[in-house]
Amino acid sequence: MSIEVSALERFAPGRGKALLRKVSLDVPDSAFVALVGPSGAGKTTLLRAIAGLDPYQAGTVSLDGQVMEDVSARAGQVGFVFQNYALFPHMTAARNIAFGLDVLPAARRPTRARINERVRELLELMQIPDLGGAYPARLSGGQRQRVALARALATGPRVLLLDEPFGALDPIVRRSIRSWLRELHDRLGLTTILVTHDQEEALDVADRIVVMQDGQIVQDASPVDLDSSPATEFVMEFLGEAVSFPGIVGAGRMVLDDPLVLPFSVPDSVADGPAVAMIRPYEIQLVPAQPGQNAPLRAVPRGARNGYRHYVLNCAGHDGIPFFLPQDGADHALEGAALDISRARLFRNGLACL
Ligand SMILES: Nc1ncnc2c1ncn2[C@@H]1O[C@H](COP(=O)(O)OP(=O)(O)OP(=O)(O)O)[C@@H](O)[C@H]1O
Asked: So what's the ipTM on this one?
């Protein structure tokens, strides 16, 4: 089932601050989208608007091309799991899962035997077949989230909305549950939107990443495109550690202010003028300095990790650039070195200019 959000606007109660500023988003059928952004960007607000849990003042939400004006029309089509959407403590896992079916009007409610069968299938699907009789207090965090997911899937929704569902889990459980979630999404042919604070989780599990900032979508791209062509400096920084080098573009070259950084070629499409080159630390290469480049590169060793020696590089304009050399590599690579940052992305006034 596809989701189309068009020019959605929501204001804080009392016509206060704009929480969603004309947000538009197309999620095709069967896509897995991760919604990321800093705290307060509007991710939960957007997800709740799509779920029909909160009102909005302008714009539309459509499912499979049909505008969902009536919130109740979304019930049953959309399953959601929130980090704090607790299970009912006085009900077993099985009864928690059955809840959405138990409360259906009699005319639409399956028979008791069919509900029990559905619960059994879901427990199986969640890989917790023996936990139907357990109460939430007896379950681990990961098991509880599987029960919450089963509860969301009980009515057979085609859309799954997940708001930080694994936020409270430890990193190892989290990693295993997310690959399982991706398989589940593929197997059931769902359309999933996952809000996460974990950039690695987003890059790992989603086929599209939507970055929000200040109530707006600033970029919507595949993980590969987001990494190779971030639309703004903010996106570049948000997705991982980045080092900035200011400089000037002229005659097809970016010349950096820092004399220890080698100039590099840029496409003709980049206009001349000041720009900022941003690069991930692991993309920086050390190369022999050019004659006349005598500003020293200082490399402060910081121990070894996973077969690599860790250094912090300090040069004219920058302190604290993390750098790694293979443990069996030569130290002298650092002596008289300059930095090659030709893999950097270029920005001007905060926007990508490549
Ligand atoms: N009902 C409300 N009334 C007033 N302000 C609200 C309301 N709901 C959300 N906000 C504000 O809207 C902004 C966006 O909140 P939202 O929870 O959507 O952000 P988020 O991106 O999900 O953040 P987080 O990652 O911290 O969960 C915040 O500034 C929040 O304080």
From this structure: 0.93
Domains of the chain by start residue, with CATH? 3-232 (3.40.50.300), 241-352 (no CATH)
pLDDT top residue among 211 and 86:
211
Pick 14 or 133 by higher pLDDT: 133
Q: Ligand 1: does its nearest atom lie under 6 Å from the Cβ of 215?
A: no
Instruction: Confirm or reject: Cβ of 50 under 6 Å from ligand 1.
Output: no
With a cut of 90, say whether residue 303 has pLDDT above it.
no
- 3-state SS of the chain? CCEEEEEEEEECCCCCCEEEEEEEEEECCCCEEEEECCCCCCHHHHHHHHHCCCCCCEEEEEECCEECCCHHHHECCEEEEECCCCCCCCCCHHHHHHHHHHCCCCCCCCCHHHHHHHHHHHHHHCCCCCCCCCCHHHCCHHHHHHHHHHHHHCCCCCEEEEECCCCCCCHHHHHHHHHHHHHHHHHHCCEEEEECCCHHHHHHHCCEEEEEECCEEEEEECHHHHHHCCCEHHHHHHCCCCEEEEEEEECCEEEECCCCECCEECCCCCCCEEEEEEECHHHCEEEECCCCCCCCCEEEEEEEECCEEEEEEEECCEEEEEEEEECCCCHHHHCCEEEECCCCEEEECCEECC
Q: Which atom of ligand 1 is nearest to the CA of 45?
A: 18
Q: Is the CB of 208 under 6 A from ligand 1?
A: no
Segment 15-35, tens digit of pLDDT: 688 999 999 999 999 999 999
pLDDT digits (tens, 9 = 90+) for 271-287: 999 999 999 988 988 88
